[in-house]
Amino acid sequence: MSDSRVTSSSKRTASPSAAISSKTDSGTRSRSASSTNLKDASKSKTSSQQDADKESAINKDSKFIGTITTNTTTNETYKETITTACSLTQNASASADFLFGVHIFTSFHRICVVTALLPLVTLFTCFVTAYVFQYDDVHETHCRVYNIVPSISAITGVSPQRYFWRFSIALHLGPRIPIAFIYKNYYRSMLAKLQKERPEKVGNLGALVTLILVLNCIEIASLGGVTYVSNRENYPVHERIFITFMICSLCHMLATIKLNGAIHEDHTELSQKQRDSIKWKKILFAMSILSTIGLLIFFAKHRFYCHVLAFSWFAFFEYLIAIANMFFHFTIIWDFSSLNMVIIDAPRAKLEELLRKPALKMD
């Protein structure tokens, strides 16, 4: 009996100690779990702080993050993207002090629309005002026969229309030179892609790209000459510059259509806008050829025979040629529908290093 009591008492004594031991173990496990959670939380907090520090460092090192998006629907070889923050982060040790500023970031589409529509709106304004208020002055010719349509030289050669026209053409010619070089770089990038895919198709297309650039620049220069050398001031010089403008304009149209046909032979990779651009280029070129033929016929009738209304028909075809030329260049809104213009203040060598595209160097 005494042994059983001792045993039972020892059991009762052992049970509280076991309970205390189990409580101690559970408390230790809970403290270790909580410490583990705290460590994980501190690690996640540290990583988030590091990410935040990286972002702040990127924002501190670079003023702007500029992206030049060029015709994303055309092809990937002509897409130039400047991701300055990533480049500066990767090359922080090499170019930690390199900062650049973006002074202008605007839609090139809007610039092209304004550039193309400016002479058209100005020409219409000069025609209406000269026809209404200076009818006799704009219809005066050496034949002194009846006419109803004045020529472009006539409506832009009287005052004050001449100042309005010259001011408009000055604003128009400014963006035309950069546009000519943008087309050159665009066509060269297309040839680079064609060289990889079908090298036998390239041939002398590189020389054709250079020819297009030269013809475009001569056309722009002759347009300025025709504008600022009036037929009333110096008719022989005005006439020769106008002939130069006509020849270069038609040759530029033909060369552009031929190049587009060679580069996009099957038209499968083109977007709908680019197909429309090529289609309208062909239509406007045909319109220019037919109008030029009519212009030469009626110019001869007016110059040598002084036929009635011959000068009016000459002027009519002259308007058609001018409108076709304007709309031919207006097709750039389909060629570069998503192009943006960026002016960056930075060393050229650093920008070329960031771009890392030697085939698309800036001019």
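Second entry:
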Amino acid sequence: MGSRNVMSRLLVLSSVGFGGYLTGTYLERRKPIRTADYVNTGKVDELFCSKPGLPIFGTVSAATPIPAESKPSALVNVSRVGQIMKYGFPGLDNVRSFDDYVLSYDRRTRVAHWVFEHLTPETVKRNDGVDRAKSDFKADDSIHPFFRSLNTDYKGSGFDRGHLAAAGNHRMDQKHCDQTFYLTNMAPQVGVGFNRDKWNHLESYVRKLTKQYPSVYCCTGPLYLPRREDDGKLYVKYQVIGSNNVAVPTHFYKVIVMETADGRLEMESYVLPNQKIDDGTPLTMFQVPPETVERAAGLLFFDKIARNKLAKINGKKV
């Protein structure tokens, strides 16, 4: 009889404890958290709430809250994410989905690890109803204020706010274009000779691929590559800008997969230095084996595609 009483008490205590844990967890998730933007003001100045996540990955979240009454829109967003990420996620660190592109954010550097896009003839064709001049550069409020980049970080730095997902790739809707101006989609880029020139040429080239291929998948991101210095040793060094120490990448990459009308797949990969590049340098000079980018970035691109199933890599038959 005594042992039964002990067991009964233990069960009651366990139930109470577990119930309290669930209640506390629920309330904590519902409660807005007041945070201090110590980096910029040193004051407690805003409320920060965690954002909803996609159901499969704990680190994947929508960039803006999805209201409960907007289920059809949420389902469309998840479906679009599935289209964009058809051939796999390069990594799953702080992944955020927007209406027409997906990114993984590096809170340490304040620059994305990677940004993924799915381009079609419809998404890139001219649309008089979409005007990038109406879009404003803005901080991404889905990022904790400790880890955000701000417009003030770029002001006076000498660097452009360079798009990773190019605004010109998202012309189906003004909102799609607007969302490419979140600072989570930006990186400090040299202006003349790079962002406004050779990098822009590469972006235009990717868009033109949609004239030949019905679907083009493009992954873009930064690299921080080592350089050998006078002592003969290799060092990884990069500048940071602004009060939030936004990292200035040494290089940028694009890894692209093109689907042909008959289902064949081709891949191209590029690495460009973040510096002024002579306008006469052909883009093919910057083609590199995709595994070179993977090793440098610490990511696996299009890992659902076996490389021996590709028809071409950088224009050469596999």
